[in-house]
Structure formats: C-alpha cells, structure tokens
Amino acid sequence: MTVTRVPVNKQSASVYRAYLDAAAEVRARAEDAGLSRTVLELVNLRVSQINGCAFCLNMHSKALLETGDTVQRIAVLPAWRDTQLFSDTERAALEIAETVTWISDTHLDDDEYTLLREHLTDDQVSLLIWSAITINAFNRVSIMSRYPVRAEK
Predict the structure, then answer these.
(1) Whether 134 contacts 47, CB under 8 Å
(2) SS in 3 state form for 14-51?
(3) Record's superkingdom (predicted)?
C-alpha cells in the first residue's frame, strides 16, 4: 500500500513560490557572476545524485543535455575526480556542491578552500554555495512529496 504524501509545494504554496523566487535570484546572480548554466546544472545534478532525488535527476540531466553537455560527462559525474572531463571551474563547483550536501561528513580545510579560490571569485564561491543549498532544499521537497518521474513517450 502506498500512502499519499502531502504535496509540500501545493500545501504551502506561498512558501514554495517564495522559494522559487529565491532560487531564480540565486541563478540570475550566479550567471551575472560569470557562472555558466552548465556549471549550475552540474551542481544541481551532482547534489541530486547524492540525495537520490529521481525527479530532480530526470530534470537536471535533461537540462544539462540542453546546454550541449554530453552523455559521457553526465554518466561519469559521480566519479568526476577520476576523469579529466571537467574544467577547473567545474571541479571547484562540484567540490562545493559535495561539501554543502555532505556537510556533516565533509568540511573543506584551508588548503582545499585556497585551491577553490584559485578558480572562483568570492561572488562565485558564495553563489555556488547558495546554488547547492537551493537544490538540496528542492531535492528534499521532491523526495518528501514523492514527485513522480513519468516514462517518456
């Protein structure tokens, strides 16, 4: 038996709309800071992989493909450290995404943080942290509400 879950986005619609607006602001400021849609979608997809959010995995893998990214990079994303397929900026963004998502287990030491700063501006670091926080929250809304992934026709 499947229990019907409270659709958090509908039950608290004004809160959800405010969060959508906040996420749009983060995305706009991130793009203003020079972060590409590809970098932002890599963060969204990697966080969604860690959290196991099927709905967001489906959405953000499609979004990455729309940016012109490749199936190969999407396929190896969980093992990004073991490939040479990602730029220094993308690697720094993925490091931030994983650190924010696994915050109870992972903290960047000063040396690691210094390495990030070689590839990112202060604004980019801040906005990537906000991007990771935002997708983590959306993952939790989707998972708790059991958003369905429907088969494509």
Answers:
(1) no
(2) HHHHHHHHHHHHHHHHHHHCCCCHHHHHHHHHHHHHHH
(3) Bacteria
Q: What is the DSSP letter of 84?
A: S
Compute the distance between CA of residue 25 and CA of residue 124 in angstroms, rounded to an integer: 14
> Which CATH architecture best describes the domain 13-145?
Up-down Bundle (1.20)
> What's the pLDDT score for residue 1?
62
Cα gap 50→143, rounded to integer Å: 12
pTM given for the model: 0.93
Amino acid at 13: A
Is residue 111 predicted with pLDDT exceeding 90? no
Residue type, 113: Y
Q: How confident is the model at residue 54 (pLDDT cuts 50, 70, 90)?
A: very high
* Residue showing tokens 């499947």: 2
CA separation for the pair 44, 139 (Å, rounded):
9
DSSP state of 79: G
